[in-house]
Amino acid sequence: MDYNNENSFASQLRPPSQIPTPGKLFEMSAAATNARSTMLPPPNNDRKRKTLAERAGEPSRPTPAPPSSRPVNPHVRATSLAGVARETSFSSSVSSRPSSVASTRNTSGSSYSSSIGPGSRPPTSHSYRPQSAMSYQRFQRPVSSLNRPATSLEAHEEEPGTARNLGKRKVIAWDTDSRLEEVENMCSQFKEKMDGATTESKSLREMMGIYKIRITELEAIRTQLTSSNAALQLELDGTKARLAASSNELDDAKRYQNIRLDDMQRQHRRELEDARHDAESDQRRLIREHTERLTELQRTLESALEDQRNRHQKEIQALSLEGTTTQQEKEKEIEKQLRAYQALEDDLRNCKSDVVKEQDLNNELRAKVSRLTNNIADLETSVQRLEGHIHFLESDNKSQSHAFADLEARMQNALRSAAEANDKLRTEETLRRKLHNQVQELKGNIRVFCRVRPSLEGDAVDTARITYPDDETDSKEVEVMGPEEKSSLGNNTTKKYPFAFDRVFGPRSKNQDVFEEISQLVQSALDGYNVCIFCYGQTGSGKTYTMSASDGMIPLAVNQIYDTAKSLEEKGWKYKMEGSFIEVYNEVLNDLLGKADEFDKKKHEIKHDLQKGKTIITDITTVDLDSSGKVDSILQRASSNRSVASTKANERSSRSHSVFILKLIGENSLTGEKSEGTLNLVDLAGSERLAHSGATGERLKETQSINKSLSCLGDVIAALGQGKEGGHIPYRNSKLTYLLQNSLGGNSKTLMFVMISPLQAHLSETLTSLKFATKVHNTHIGTAKKQTKA
Ligand SMILES: Nc1ncnc2c1ncn2[C@@H]1O[C@H](COP(=O)(O)OP(=O)(O)OP(=O)(O)O)[C@@H](O)[C@H]1O
């Protein structure tokens, strides 16, 4: 809860309920108060009234001044005038006869009417009523009542008594007629008064009704106000309670905050203490380390200084030694120079003697010059002889130039014949390709090799009896001893099953030996043919080992292609190699170089260009094989993808076909030739028969799909073997045969490996595989066509 948020608290309070408008309240208090305070006390009927006769005998008393003669507040006057509007006769009688009853009555009536009733009274009448007509009358009553004849009401009550009084007066009357007239006048006046009193009474009753209604209304308002007051009180109590609860909560929150603040402060202090402690220990450690380092540095510096000092001392010693040596040498040199000087002096002496000798010699030389002049003539003769010899040598150089030109011509001839030889070589390469293809055709466009794997360490000891009759010569035959059968005579017999293929590899054969046999087919792919090599056999018979081992057909084929492509470069050929790896599992294509989690989900379509003999698979990863090392990474990626996609119970590689597709696009820049070949290396799923596998559920579905695709492969080969021009080949019956459509049949070269397990337990599957391979071997497929690029 947010105790600081006053708004939230304020919002919880209820808005005050409707309070009656101050106008009404004012109206009630003023009107009600005034109505009650100004209401006339009931007429005192108990007061003993005097009869007319009694009053007639009384001496007349001075009448009080009429209200009009006194200074009256203008509002009071207005009120009286309002009364006049209703009872004009009374007003007039008051003014004309101050002593009459009517005047008094009229005044009180008008005062009364003016003091009550919001409708008939001017609103300001209360505020200007220090002495209302009523109060004036009340104040005057004891005096006026003495000579007042009677109020209209009293007159009414006293009416029966009037006749009696009159009768009494008749007795005492001294002027009967005038008295009678007076009485009649009085009677008529009483009658008038009666009428007026009746009207007044009626209006008073009406007023009473109005006041009753008004009182009821005011009572209702009071009730309403009381109830709203009670509601407000309740609300106020509720709000007070909420306020108290909120303030309690606020106090709690404050307390909690304070506790938390204290905790945090304590923790902060602790952390600060720890940090300070850590910092101090760090500081101490750093100072220690620093001191140690300083000491060490000092030690190092001191030792370096010592070394340097020693070195300098040594140098100084060496220099002083050198100085001493130099000084000695210099001294020696000076001595030597002194000796040389002495020698020079000796020489000078000798020279002087020599000059003498020279002069003698000069004379001798002059004699010689004359002799030499004679000799010059002899030499000129010799020069002439030498010039003749130079002429002779110059003529020999020309003959050498001729010989050089001759050599150059011979070299040009050699280059020409080399170019011719290269041309011839290229022509021969084309011829070789043709002849190579012819040899392959002669060997048959579908060939079958059989390979029997050796017994492995974990294998059962019981091996089948498999022999190789022509092992030493052609290596084309294999004989398998069938299972023991009882003859009709009850003897145990075993049947021998001989098979012959294009080549049989025994258990001792190596992958390299196998590859030598197929390398010519790989060469055909380089030459622009579609080649398909697939391994057929039961699970564990050695298909993957033959195809994808590190020295298997795939790596060896790629290596050979690299080597050959390189050697063909000097003949003008340049090759581009693209590799992709496909899996066919349960009739669904998967990209083994793609993502394992997209297996069986991503759709790949097979599209054929039958005219160009090209196959395209949509959304497949194609790797540029620009170095031979790449093939290893491709095989590893495919293998890891397969193991990710497989489960323990389902060894995916055994239950699916894998196809390594190598596209080889070549172009000869010298001859303009182009070729596009495809090498398909197929590792088929295990071929064990459904009945033998004992599979159920998902495994049964897999086995059915494998059997279907393998039997479709057999059907396609059989249909091709029939060799009917335009005959239907059921490629579309399975994904595998549809994928290999351009690599199976007339436009391609096909090689099938039938892989055999040496175990007796697998004998039945071995015989089935060998029989299937024999059927394929007996099939002759039409001539292969080279794929040339447009
Ligand atoms: N010629 C051989 N020399 C030595 N070992 C071999 C040979 N052929 C197969 N093997 C071994 O035999 C075992 C089974 O071979 P491989 O996995 O190649 O069989 P497979 O037919 O591909 O089986 P699957 O159908 O399950 O893929 C492997 O351990 C493999 O190393």
TrEMBL record:
Major subcellular location class: cytoplasm
Domain Kinesin motor: 445-779
Membrane-spanning parts: none
GO molecular function annotation: ATP binding; microtubule binding; minus-end-directed microtubule motor activity
KW ATP-binding (keyword) present: yes
Protein family per UniProt: Belongs to the TRAFAC class myosin-kinesin ATPase superfamily. Kinesin family. KIN-14 subfamily.
The name this protein goes by in its record: Kinesin-like protein
Species of origin: Cladonia borealis
